[in-house]
Amino acid sequence: MSKEPILVTRSSMPTMEEFIKEIEPIWDTAWLTNMGPKHQQLEKELIDYMGVEGLQLFTNGHMALELCIQAFKLQGEVITTPFTFASTTHAIVRNNLTPVFCDINPQDYTMDVTKLESLITEKTCAIVPVHVYGNMCNVAEIERIAKKHNLKVIYDAAHAFGVKVNGVGAGCFGDASMFSFHATKVFNTIEGGAVTFSQPWLKKELYNLKNFGIVDAEHVGEVGGNAKMNEFQAAMGICNLRHVDTEIAKRKAVVERYRSRLQGVAGIAVTSEQAGIQSNYAYFPAVFDETVFGKTRDEIFEALAEENVFARKYFYPLTNSYDCYKGTYSVEDTPVAQWVAKRVLTLPLFADLPLADVDRICDIILKK
Ligand code: T4K
Questions:
Q1: How far is CA 66 from CA 142, 194, 225, 268, in A?
Q2: What's the pLDDT tens digit per position in 192-228?
């Protein structure tokens, strides 16, 4: 059993030898970035692995989302959820769009689709739902509503790498989906991200936007950014992709151990497998209802910290209560999200977390 601090996650890495072998050719070419051979190879391998028609790599997930939203040249209101990382709401606001917050459902914490349609106005241009923790949104219902009202759908799929819905890759839904390949994710390229899509025009559009909007040596067509993935990031991705299925299988064992200890305990809600969904076991949220369990989330957080176990409160606070948005939005609009955000803890989860440590974490939680 580990006596070291246990953090919420620990990056998956290849062996040093495997990574060095992968980066060695870079010294022959001196080609470090700007869509080099490693970048091209990873892009192809990911299209295949994720079963998507198109994919563009980015330097991180946030810039992928921000530039993806820019690609659609939207104006007006975008319906999204506040139970997410800062990135989702910031990407909307930084595109001069107005986020309108839809509540989440209390089962899997994704957008409550029964509340979606009532938020649509003549100003609504798009929906940006979040597959939070790797739990898939109700993609069929979102597609139905979006078609009916002629809205774009851009998924924040930062957590959903490797997830499948009835055998179909998570990146195949909506107009586009953004994935994060950050160090803390199931699949990482150190920092990194991607947008997946099926409409062919997005390939060139996203390629240009991540490279300053440059069309060719003498033409700059748009006000783009610089969000290119470099060759070292791509090399890390090529290595990690070889092992990702094994990593997911190991995560599954950790999640099953947590479930065997915590599922059914009065006052603790843990997520179950979603019907028809092949999970990636990205995060393990546990929601503590203090009125039933007898202890608050914060008391459990502290009890774990005293034992050198560092869970995290993903996602507290809600993005619609951030200081930078003070006075602009109201958490009262999203009561379920507010309730969950005050009670959720994401417990440590990574492929090599020993099951004995999972037991120790559960013992601390369940200690009366
Ligand atoms: N949309 C959603 C829904 C997201 O959750 C995110 C990112 C994004 C969009 C944007 O994607 P990116 O632009 O990030 O690609 C972390 C991550 O930085 C962030 O990627 C992630 N979501 C968010 C949920 O978590 P922090 O500030 O909590 O990270 P930090 O540094 O506290 O790390 C958490 C733990 O991970 C550490 O305690 C130990 C471990 N760790 C961390 C790093 C940096 C490692 O093992 N290795 C590492 O290199 O945000």
A1: 21, 11, 10, 36
A2: 999 999 999 999 999 999 999 999 999 999 999 999 9
Task: State the first-to-last Cα distance of the chain, in angstroms, to the nearest integer.
Answer: 22
Task: Extract long-range pairs of 324-332: CB within 8 Å, 24+ residues apart.
Answer: 325/89, 325/93, 329/82, 329/99, 329/101, 331/82
Pairing mode, if any, of strands 219-220 and 214-216? antiparallel
Atom 12 (ligand 1): residue with closest C-alpha?
61
Could you read off the pLDDT of 270-287 as tens digits, one per residue? Answer: 999 999 999 999 999 999
Residue 2 scores a pLDDT above 60: no
Domains of the chain: 16-238 (3.40.640.10), 244-366 (3.90.1150.10)
Atom of ligand 1 minimally distant from the CA of 191? 15
Residue with tokens 């997946």: 196
- C-alpha of residue 221 to centroid of ligand 1, in Å: 33
Q: Which amino acid is at 160?
A: A
Q: To the nearest whole percent, how much of the chain has pLDDT over 70?
A: 99
Nearest to 133 by CA among 114, 155, 109, 154: 109
Give pLDDT, residue 231: 98
pLDDT at 234: 98
Candidate from 80, 85, 308 with most ligand 1 atoms within 8 A of CB, to mutate = 85
85 lines ligand 1 (CB under 6 A): yes
- Residue closest to 280 by CA, chosen among 154, 151, 181, 138: 181
Count of residues in the chain: 368
